[in-house]
Each structure stands twice: as structure tokens, then as C-alpha cells.
Specification:
The chain is of the alpha/beta class. It folds into two domains: 7-35 and 322-424, Aspartate Aminotransferase, domain 1 (Alpha-Beta Complex), CATH 3.90.1150.10; 53-321, Aspartate Aminotransferase, domain 2. 37% of the residues lie in helices and 15% in strands. The protein contains 13 helices and 17 strands. The protein has helices at residues 7-16, 50-65, 69-72, 85-92, 105-116, 134-146, 151-154, 169-179, 201-210, 305-321, 323-348, 376-384, 408-424; strands spanning 26-27, 30-31, 34-35, 37-38, 47-48, 99-102, 125-129, 155-158, 183-189, 214-218, 237-241, 254-258, 352-354, 367-371, 387-388, 390-392, 396-399. The strands form five sheets. It has a seven-stranded mixed sheet, with helices on both faces. It has a four-stranded antiparallel sheet with strand order 13-14-17-16, with helices on one face. It has a two-stranded antiparallel sheet with strand order 1-5. Helix 1 (7-16) packs antiparallel against helix 13 (408-424), helix 8 (169-179) runs parallel beside helix 9 and helix 11 packs parallel to helix 13 (408-424). The mean pLDDT is 97. The structure holds pyridoxal-5'-phosphate and (2S)-2-amino-4-(2-aminophenyl)-4-oxobutanoic acid. Pathway: Cofactor biosynthesis; NAD(+) biosynthesis; quinolinate from L-kynurenine: step 2/3; Amino-acid degradation; L-kynurenine degradation; L-alanine and anthranilate from L-kynurenine: step 1/1. This is Kynureninase. Its EC number is 3.7.1.3. Its cofactor is pyridoxal 5'-phosphate.
């Protein structure tokens, strides 16, 4: 489709957008009395209007039922976490039995590594990407040290080529092959937080398995953003936070995927607690742990119901709309944003460099823009004008038009504000 950089054209695209009405289902902050243009759904998604109702429901149950709420609330708390599995399974391509919601992202990855990172003899290395999100870097370094290795010996980082902005699949595969039988685990971000690049998770998972390693994915920037088929790709484990594209609220609970081939296996070890115990017998207070026959075996503590409530509210919306419709809109709105950036660049000669892959299958909702000539002043100007983006050193703004609540008109208006901001300097 040929795009136009006009308000009429943007409105036409909004009229054709089947998801347009969902914008009203979210609460927008305001700047100068006007709803912001929100590009940071890749950091913290907006609040769904329904979230408060779900939280209020728990508050009411707590007030009226107190301890009895565990079993007699309308949505009882003792198995509240199970409500997520089937619906989240559709979002990430896992069987319901492979999905559980618990803790937070870095914590879950640590817990999953307790199961899946078992260094032994020659096989002790973890392959990850260079400049991973800092929490992942700290986490992986601390894991190898925990097992008595040094970061230098045990962490292998896949590098981008000189002057390039994203990883080449062939380089990732070559590194896995090179590390070979020394590789215990491959653990990478499925969508890179900085560039927005989507990795070929199926191929990389296969390559990891071919050298005898386990393969896990940090899906912080992937869940609710791109199509995932964790089960079909035979991924061993994955975890994601829910506060980005999944709009569950700040610091909220993380989802985890654990491949069914590890369920109910005697030779699997994990860090355990009573919420992972056979649910029918959980309250019999028996001395010996009997794991749930599914991913819930990895649960440890009783679930934080108040935190989970807004996640459930948001998940219901994902279920109503479905990932295919979100992805269809995402592709169109990201392409339109890319077009607007290119048009403005031409008009004002700004030299933006989009450091996100241009191929649709290699990117999701995020476009990262390297501002060669411009800098922090432009970012600040955008914020003052109600365009919420984020800044990543040294000179990158990230723009993620979440398909649930961003409109084509937002993209057009953003272009006009951007142009003014550049001409002002
Ligand atoms: C790729 C990635 N990993 C880990 C994190 C940290 O997650 P948390 O603070 O929820 O553990 C984030 C975002 O904060 C992220 O983008
Ligand atoms: N959880 C946060 C708390 C405070 C500030 C940012 C975050 C983010 O999520 C950042 C995000 N992971 C990123 O890709 O930059």
C-alpha cells in the first residue's frame, strides 16, 4: 500500500482499523490537557480500564471473606494462577500445561536456570548476546559464579559485526557450533530490547539442541508483541515480564514456559515451595514434596493475587482480540511510522537512522532510531509536547506503537511534532 503523510490519510487508516475502538479501553496520561502519544508500551504498557475492576474485586473479597477468600472468593485465590495458563498459552504458543505465572522476570529466569543450567565437566558455558539487557548480564554472570566459574571462562557473548546494528543468524549459529559440547545453555533475548530485532528462535533452538545444550529465551520484549510458537519450536524454557506489551502494571508478575517433556520427571530438579505441590494435597501439610504434573510445579510461594488481578484483566483483552489481529495492525502501524520517519527525514534533512531491521519478520512493534544530528534536546522537546518515547544511550530513541492503543493519527501527529522539534534547533 502507498502511504501518504497527511491527516486525511491517517484518518482513513484509522477508519479501516478493526482494533481502533480499543484505544478507549486504556487510560492515557495527559500533557497540557491532551492525551499523550504513547510510544513506550515496550517499557510499561498503559492501564486497561478493566484493571481496576479486577483489583477491586480482590479488595472486596479480602474485606468480605478474609481468609475464606482463598477458597470461596468468586475467583478463589488458591488456584488463581491457573486462570492464566490457557489464555497465555495462546499468546506464546505453549500448551496450557506448559505455562505458569509467578514471581518476576529475572527471578524466574534464575529459578529456571536452577533447573536447566547444570554445568558438568566440559559442558559449563552459557551463550548469550553481547549488550543484553543489564539484568540479564548480571543474572548470567552471577549464575556462573554461583557454580564456581568465572564470567570470563563461562559466558560466551554473540557479537554484532563491526558497524552493524543487529545480529546475524549465521553468526549466532556459528558461535553455538564453535562452543559445541562445552555449551550447557543458550539464553538470549528473543526480541532485542535496544534494536527491536526479532531473532530466529526456531533455528537457534535447534542449533542449541544439536550441540546438546538447553535453550531458554528471555521474552520480555516478545510476549504480546510477536508470534511465538514455544512448544512447536521445542524451546526448553522461557520467561517474560507482563508489564510491557501485556499491560499488567509496573513490576508485575512474570509468565514462564516449561516444555512438557520436563513435567513429572524424576530426574528434574528445581527450587521448590508449597505452591508447586500437588494441588489436591497442598493443604494436608505433608512432609514430602509431590510436584504438580505441569509447569505449576515450579511455583514456590502462594500467589500475589492483588498483583495478578490486573494481569488477568489485560489477558482477557488479548484473548478477545487474539495475536493474529494484533500482529496485523502492528505490521501496518509500524510500516506507517517508518514511512512518516522517512518523510520527515527528507523534509528537514535530519539523518535519522532506523537501527531496527526493515524486514517485517525480523521486527515487532519497536523502531529504534539513532539520532545522528539531534540529541537529548529533541527527546526532551517530544516529551514536553506529549510524545512519550524513551532514550537509550548514546543517542537512540525507541518508538513502539502498541497496536492496542496507538492510532495512525498518532503517527501522523508525531511526525508533525518531530518536524517542529528539529526545525526549532
Ligand atoms: C530483556 C529484559 N530482561 C529483563 C528485564 C528486567 O525484568 P525484571 O526487572 O522484571 O526482572 C527487562 C526489562 O526490565 C528486559 O527488557
Ligand atoms: N521495568 C522497568 C522499570 C523502570 C524503568 C524501566 C523498566 C523497563 O522495563 C525497561 C525495559 N526493560 C527496557 O527495555 O528498557
Amino acid at each position: 500500500m502507498r502511504f501518504e503523510n497527511t491527516l486525511e490519510f491517517a484518518k482513513k487508516l484509522d477508519n479501516e482499523d478493526k482494533l481502533a475502538s480499543y484505544k478507549d479501553e486504556f487510560i492515557f496520561p495527559k500533557v497540557n490537557g491532551k492525551q499523550v502519544i504513547y510510544f513506550t508500551g515496550n517499557s510499561l504498557g498503559l492501564q486497561p480500564r478493566s484493571a481496576k475492576k479486577y483489583v477491586d474485586e480482590v479488595m472486596e473479597d479480602w474485606a468480605n471473606l478474609a481468609v475464606e477468600g482463598h477458597f470461596y472468593a468468586e475467583k478463589p485465590w488458591w488456584d488463581y494462577h491457573e486462570r492464566f495458563s490457557a489464555k497465555l498459552g495462546k499468546v506464546v504458543g505453549g500448551k496450557p500445561s506448559e505455562i505458569t505465572v509467578m514471581n518476576t522476570l529475572t527471578v524466574n529466569l534464575h529459578l529456571l536456570m536452577a533447573t536447566f543450567y547444570k554445568p558438568e565437566g566440559k559442558r559449563f558455558k552459557i551463550i548469550c548476546e553481547e549488550k543484553a539487557f543489564p539484568s540479564d548480564q548480571y543474572m548470567i554472570a552471577s549464575q556462573v559464579k554461583f557454580h564456581g566459574y568465572t564470567e570470563k571462562d563461562a559466558v560466551v557473548k554473540i557479537e554484532k559485526r563491526e558497524g552493524e546494528h543487529f545480529f546475524r543468524t549465521e553468526d549466532i549459529l556459528a558461535k553455538i557450533e564453535e562452543v559445541g559440547e562445552e555449551c550447557a545453555l543458550v539464553l538470549i533475548g528473543g526480541v532485542n530490547y535496544y534494536s527491536g530485532q526479532v531473532l530466529d528462535m526456531e533455528l537457534i533452538t535447534k542449533a542449541g539442541h544439536a550441540v546438546g545444550a538447553k535453550v531458554g529465551w528471555d521474552l520480555a520484549h516478545a510476549a504480546g508483541n510477536i508470534e511465538l510458537k514455544l512448544h512447536d519450536w521445542d524451546v526448553d524454557f522461557a520467561a517474560w515480564c507482563s508489564y510491557k506489551y501485556m499491560n499488567s502494571g509496573p513490576g508485575n508478575a512474570s509468565g514462564s514456559f516449561i516444555n512438557e517433556k520436563y513435567h513429572g520427571k524424576k530426574d528434574i530438579t528445581r527450587l521448590e515451595g508449597w505452591w508447586g505441590h500437588n494441588k489436591e494435597r497442598r493443604f494436608l501439610m505433608e512432609p514430602e514434596f509431590q510436584p504438580e504434573p505441569n509447569a505449576h510445579a515450579w511455583q514456590i510461594s502462594n500467589a500475589p493475587i492483588l498483583a495478578m488481578a490486573p494481569y488477568l484483566a489485560s489477558l482477557e483483552m488479548f484473548d478477545e482480540v487474539g495475536m493474529p489481529a494484533l500482529i496485523e495492525k502492528r505490521n501496518r502501524i509500524v510500516a506507517y511510522l517508518e514511512f512518516i520517519l522517512q518523510e520527515i527525514d527528507k523534509e528537514v534533512d535530519a539523518s535519522f537512522e532506523i537501527i531496527t531491521p526493515s524486514k517485517q519478520e525480523e521486527r515487532g512493534t519497536q523502531l529504534s532510531v539513532f539520532l545522528h544530528g539531534e540529541g537529548k534536546e529533541l527527546f526532551n522537546y517530544l516529551m514536553e509536547q506529549g510524545v512519550i518515547t524513551d532514550w537509550r544511550e548514546p543517542n537512540v530513541i525507541r518508538l513502539a506503537p502498541a497496536p492496542f492503543y496507538c492510532s495512525f493519527k498518532d503517527m501522523y501527529n508525531f511526525g508533525q511534532i518531530l518536524k517542529k522539534g528539529i526545525l526549532k534547533n
